[in-house]
Amino acid sequence: MWRTIGHEWAIALLQRAIDTGRVSHAYLFTGPANVGKTHLAKEMAAALNCAGDASPCGSCRACLKTARGTHPDVFLVEPGNGSIKIDQIRQLQRQLALSPYEGRQRIAIIADFQAATVQAANALLKTLEEPPSRVVLLLAAVDASLLLPTIVSRCQVLPLRGLSCQQIERALIGRWHERPDLARLLSKVSGGRIGWAISAT
Ligand SMILES: [Zn+2]
Q1: Which of 24, 65, 179, 199 suits a disulfide with 71, CB 3.0-4.6 Å?
Q2: Residue 52 DSSP SS3
Q3: CA of 90 to the centre of ligand 1 (A)
């Protein structure tokens, strides 16, 4: 069961791709900071290697390891010192060239890809043009217009929007046991950014 809050249409699309065996080589999640892009990408990574019945089950070894960031076939790349550099992409490519160690797929999650240098973006383009088998790339960026068009055109783009106040309020009360008055206040000032609202509790 997916635990991502909101973004129901994107979850339905990803679940359908898994169920029908038609998973794309690359997805690009776009949307404001703290709207849940990387969280959804991590759940997709878990779902792709999940051994449970209703993937992502959240309780099998693959799901637990992916959530903890210790799955040997799931690689997370984030900006270091403000940018994603070509060395990070080259290291990732070496890892993706190997067969999956214990999962069905090797999965790269690249957060804040708008922070990639031109050299890093061009290096990743080669992987997008000739994706290794059993590899899925999950990119996240604030806006597709900040990326090379050649990158965007090779990804299935999932534009995520901010959540409604009601969704955030319900989640803060139901999942994070926040006081109702505080949950309402936080949901109103969050601007739809669930990650921000959670970090403020
Ligand atoms: Zn699972």
Answers
A1: 65
A2: coil
A3: 29
Residue 3 belongs to a domain: no
> Quick one: DSSP state of residue 23?
-
Length of the chain: 201
- Alpha carbons 33 and 197: distance in angstroms, whole number: 12
Ligand 1 center–CA 137 separation, angstroms: 19
pLDDT value at residue 55: 85
Do 36 and 111 fall into the same domain? yes
What is the per-residue pLDDT across 101-126, written as a single tens digit (0 to 9) for each? 999 999 999 999 999 999 999 999 99
ipTM above 0.95, yes or no: yes
Q: What is the distance in A from the centroid of ligand 1 to the CA of 52?
A: 5
31-77 pLDDT, tens per residue?
999 999 999 999 999 999 999 988 899 999 999 999 999 999 999 99
Q: How far is the CA of 126 from the centre of ligand 1 (A)?
A: 31
The predicted structure's pLDDT at residue 53? 87
DSSP notation for 139-176: EEES-GGGS-HHHHTTSEEEE--PPPHHHHHHHHHHTT
Residue 139: phi and psi, rounded to 5, are: -100, 150
Q: Is residue 2 part of a domain?
A: no
- Type of residue numbered 138: L
Considering only CA atoms, give the Rg of the chain.
17
Structural domain boundaries, residue 173: 162-201
In a domain, 86, yes or no: yes
